[in-house]
Amino acid sequence: VQAEIAADAAGGAFSLNPLNNCYDGVVINANFGLGESVGSGTVTPDTFVVDRVQQVVLEREIGGKETAVYLQTKGGTIEKTDHSSSHQSITDAQALQIAKLAADVEAVYNKPIDIEWAFAAGNLYLLQARPITAYFQLPEIMITPPGARKILYADKTLLKQGINEPLSVMGTDFLAYTDDLLTQFVGGGDGTANNIIDGLAKTFEGRMYLNVSNNMKLQGYKRIVREYRVMDALSSDILANIDEDEYIPDKLPPALKGMMWKALGRNLRPLLKSIKGFRKPDVYKADIAASVATLRKNISAETDKPQSFHSYTKSTLHHYLGYMDEAMASLAVSELARMQLKRLLKKEPEAIQQKTVYLERGLPDNVTIEMGLAMHELASFPEILACKSGEQFAHCLQAGEFSPAFLQAWHDFMAEYGMRSPKELDVGTPRYDEQPAQFYAQLRTFAENSDPTNNPEKIFEQSQREREAVFKELCSVLAQRSQRKANKFRKQYGHLVAFGGMRESHKYHFIWLLNVLRKRVLAAAEALVRNGRLDHTQQVFDLTIAHLDQALADPSLDLRTLAYENTAYLRRLAHVRELPRIFDSRGKIMRPPRRESRNGELVGQPISPGVVQGTVKVLHTPDEKPVLPGDILVARATDPGWTPLFTNAAAIILEVGGLLQHGSLVAREYGKPCVAGIDNVTSQLHDGQLVEVDGLQGVIRPVSS
User: Fold this and answer.
1) pLDDT band, residue 189 (cuts 50/70/90)
2) For the chain, what percentages of helix, strand and coil (3-state, to nearest 5) are there?
3) What is the DSSP string of 55-69?
4) Are 127 and 150 found together in one domain?
5) How far is Cα 134 from Cα 115, in angstroms, rounded to an integer?
């Protein structure tokens, strides 16, 4: 029989800080007497945070310790309230002892540990140890040794692409190929900058990561803070409050020296092309169309060639990079025009300057908006409401039981947009044209919306009228000061209208290319399933591109084992509810500073103007639940697959987002009020809650029912 420790003080400790995931922080809860009062949650214990590397107590919070439980000499326990609850239950020196014990136990098991401990007669006892499972585990190569200079990382998958879930193994591999080629294309060199420790970025283990520390050293701290502002406001707030000495290296790594000059030289060609866009917009738009036609012709030729998947991937990506010359130039024209429009108004009152956001509404040639309009048109056919379920719809579609007009419309839509889907950047994600039953649910939501104010075509037309009206108003304001300024404003506005909507085009063509690869991979997977080497076709995306080539060359290769080994880290990520946006090489997750709020208001970044009231609808995935007309859509982040939901939504609230993030762009195009950059907003708001969204001020106000 094990003897119970007659503890003077006891409690628990975590070998990493569960509040911020820091590997170097030990968090200790303590109370007088036995530890059961701490474990049961019946008291507010003392809390200590220890830096186990520096061996110092960083924080101490004296809890109420309302009661304490002691072991009696003759057996049993007794509860006492006469102890001094205002005093620490353990000393700082004892807290350091506990921290060392937690670190030692962690070293034995080689994983973070939650321990129970007790002090009795001055001796420290380990009572119990169990692994911590719910934490964010960094890939090994991203971790720096304890005490070494730390590196700051950002999750580009979340901040830039709006994807919270891990990417598939093959999806990650394909994007890693892409990143290597893009780095060489934009910055020159041999791709060595794609090293997460000594470079700028790396795509691996299901995510696209950025080395923020090296980026800040290369481009400048203040510039990076500004750049992140348009991508994700909260990330910019985090970076604006970091300790520069702690995270910015003293010297630039050798692989990055001279990179800015190489990038400048490589980008001269697109910049020169952009001059043509300014001088002859119509001619240059024809050049872009010709470049797209060439891209598709070249990809088709590559698809007809017998070649390995590795060779096919690299050759198709090289063709895509040829098209990117034109795409980057068109982006340069629209961004420079946007900057010039704001510069021309910088001496005007703030209320006038704020109206420039209306100039980006209803821009032509936005393929994502065009997809939403095409979905609405497809949903207008009677076949949608006539079906009672997605399964019935899919059956009738396969059997050809719908009208010829609908079948033709369906074919036309899928030819143009069938390769799209939520999380579409991952080659492992099924597409619209592969899952008609699921896609039907989105079409039905459109079809059931009979309110003309939520008609996307009407919304788009209204946005265009608002844009033109604001343009004329701003021109009139400038003309009162200087006709020359007004003329310049008019010219730059023309450039924005000509090219601003095309900023989504390069991604559209990338998704098209990616889908061509997906179809080719699925054809190989079907053969592997028939031969009993894979359990199902989707399992092929648990392999790398190289593994797939090896599988086709070597019939003895064990693909199931490879798939299981490849997904080991992804299974660990499954325990993480929300992947962090910014974190360091010792696991610490950075949080934005708290924003002051009044009367229950939530304050974020203004994205798209307008004031509406509605009931909250919180979504973690786009297919979680329908967004009904008038709902306020609340999400952590969105990618193009969420676009159809924006149609019914009265307003959009995002945790992750800046002015140029996808969800923000679509909200402005549709003329929907939008606020971004509210930390943990999917937990702060709940379904059915009545709120007012002020997109111009960036404020969410609770409304009394």
Assistant:
1) low
2) 50, 15, 35
3) TEEEEEE------EE
4) no
5) 15
Report residue 536: phi and psi, to 5°: -160, 165
Do the domain assignments include residue 96? yes
The verdict on 96 and 185 lying in the same domain is no
Least confident of 532-536, 572-576, 694-698: 572-576
% of the chain beyond a pLDDT of 90: 72
Please give the C-alpha separations between residue 685 and each of 236, 680, 681, 688, 701, in angstroms, as whole numbers: 23, 9, 6, 9, 11
Residues 6+ apart with CB under 8 A from 639: 161, 162, 163, 422, 423, 424, 425, 662
3-state secondary structure of 350: helix
Q: How far apart are CA 380 and CA 405, in angstroms?
A: 12
Sign of the four-CA dihedral 422, 427, 433, 434: negative
148 plus 58 within the same structural domain: no
Contact between residue 247 and residue 150 where contact means Cβ atoms under 8 Å apart: yes
Asked whether residue 39 carries a pLDDT value surpassing 90, the answer given is no
Q: Which residues contact 16 (CB under 8 A, 6 or more apart)?
A: 22, 23, 25, 26, 112, 132, 135, 587
Is residue 184 situated within a structural domain?
A: yes
Q: Kindly state whether residues 18 and 100 are assigned to the same domain.
A: yes
Q: Please report, for the domain that includes residue 23, its CATH number.
A: 3.30.470.20
CA distance 45 to 39: 10
Is 104 found in the same domain as 174?
no
Domain membership of residue 365 (yes or no) is no
The 3-state DSSP class for residue 211 equals strand
Q: Which of 201, 232, 266 is the last residue of a domain?
A: 266
Domain count across the chain: 3
* Contact partners, residue 428, CB within 8 Å, separation at least 6: 167, 168, 169, 170, 171, 518, 538, 541
Query: For tokens 């481009």, what's the residue?
Result: 219
In this structure, are 112 and 164 located in the same domain? no
Domain boundary pick from 213, 244, 266: 266
Quick one: pLDDT band at residue 599, thresholds 50, 70, 90?
Answer: confident
**Structural tokens at position 397:** 């579609």
Residue 110 is given by DSSP the state T
Give the orientation angle of helix 268-279 with respect to helix 309-344, to 10 degrees: 50
User: What gap in Å lies between CA 175 and CA 111, rounded to an integer?
Assistant: 30
Per the structure, the complete domain to which residue 615 belongs is given by 602-702
Token pair, residue 648, equals 């019914």
Type of residue numbered 46: D
296-305: long-range contacts at Cβ-Cβ below 8 A with a sequence spacing of 24 or more?
Answer: 296/512, 298/322, 299/513, 299/516, 303/516, 303/520
- H-helix or E-strand containing 201? strand 201-204
Strand 605-608, strand 674-676: pairing? antiparallel
Q: Do 144 and 231 reside in the same domain of the chain? A: yes
Integer Cα distance of 476 and 493 in angstroms: 14
Does a structural domain hold residue 663?
Answer: yes
Return d(Cα 687, Cα 364) in angstroms, integer.
34
Distance between CA atoms of residues 621 and 155, nearest Å: 19
- Domain containing residue 682: CATH number: 3.50.30.10
Q: Burial level of 111, CB count in 10 A (0-12/13-18/19+)?
A: middle
Q: Report pLDDT digits (tens) over 116-161.
A: 999 999 999 999 999 998 899 999 999 999 999 999 999 999 999 9
Residue-wise pLDDT tens digits, 272-313: 778 888 889 899 999 999 999 999 999 999 999 999 999 999
Q: Are 656 and 158 in contact (CB under 8 A)?
A: yes
Among 455, 462, 500, 463, CA closest to 362 = 463
77 and 179, same domain (yes or no): no
